[in-house]
Specification:
This protein is an all-alpha fold. The chain contains 12 helices and no strands. Helix 7 packs antiparallel against helix 8.
Length: 231
């Protein structure tokens, strides 16, 4: 009986599919012009986007890169005020951000500006600019996150600082940035008396990054945390 019921239901199912197809065909037929305009509109938007990127964004980015060369030279010489604000003849990083805001170079200028403010002791502006920095270079992104952590620590906001150090460590796993920022986070926790959190991070450094500079001192730090927790 069950088999007969299944067989009896099959024609109804096929008929339902046919009805759905017929309704779809009728909808397309009735709305042919609207559908055509929508498709042409989507194609036009895509074409405009690629044209805008090729004929406006890319030239602007090249122009910004050339304009930022002198500011980068000042940055390398630790002339952070000139790097930020320019020298009267050449743009500084803040000028690049204002004039070329939608370019990749302007995003990089935010990174440099953040570091300039950081080294100048203006931690709030450092955080503001570093948070605006986006990059496909994950290592550079980790350094920016770590610098935000440094700024928060300098401002006395230790919890936020440790949080950003951990973000920096986990942004991309490598033998340079990961143990460096895990160690910084652990030191913050240690100084705050959060020995369990510090122990966890020192142990992670020893396990995952034993060959790093921080990994070589991890055993000593682990012993220290265990001693403090035993008191």
């Amino acid at each position: 009986m069950a088999k007969n019921n299944v067989k009896d239901q099959q024609p109804d199912g096929l008929e339902s599919v046919e009805q759905t197809l017929n309704r779809t065909e009728l909808f397309i037929e009735d709305n042919r012009n609207i559908i055509m305009y929508v498709v042409l509109g989507v194609v036009a938007v895509i074409a405009i986007f690629f044209a805008f990127r090729r004929f406006y964004i890319e030239p602007k980015n090249n122009e910004a890169s050339a304009a930022m060369y002198v500011a980068e030279q000042y940055f390398q010489k630790d002339s952070f005020n000139l790097a930020l604000n320019g020298d009267g003849n050449n743009d500084g990083f803040l000028d690049i951000i204002d004039e070329y805001g939608i370019t990749k170079t302007a995003k990089l200028a935010n990174y440099y500006a953040g570091l300039c403010f950081m080294y100048g002791g203006n931690y709030e502006d450092a955080i503001k600019h570093l948070k605006k920095f986006k990059s496909s270079d994950l290592t550079l992104g980790s350094i920016a996150l770590g610098a935000i952590g440094d700024a928060y620590v300098e401002m006395g906001e230790l919890s936020k600082g440790a949080s950003y150090y951990e973000k920096a460590a986990n942004n991309v796993k490598n033998e340079f940035t990961s143990p460096l920022y895990l160690n910084k986070a652990a030191q913050v926790y240690e100084n705050r008396g959060s020995y369990k959190k510090a122990l966890k991070l020192y142990t992670q450094i020893k396990t995952d990054f034993a060959s790093s500079q921080e990994g070589r001192s991890a055993e000593k730090n682990i012993a220290k945390m265990n001693a403090l927790l035993a008191k």
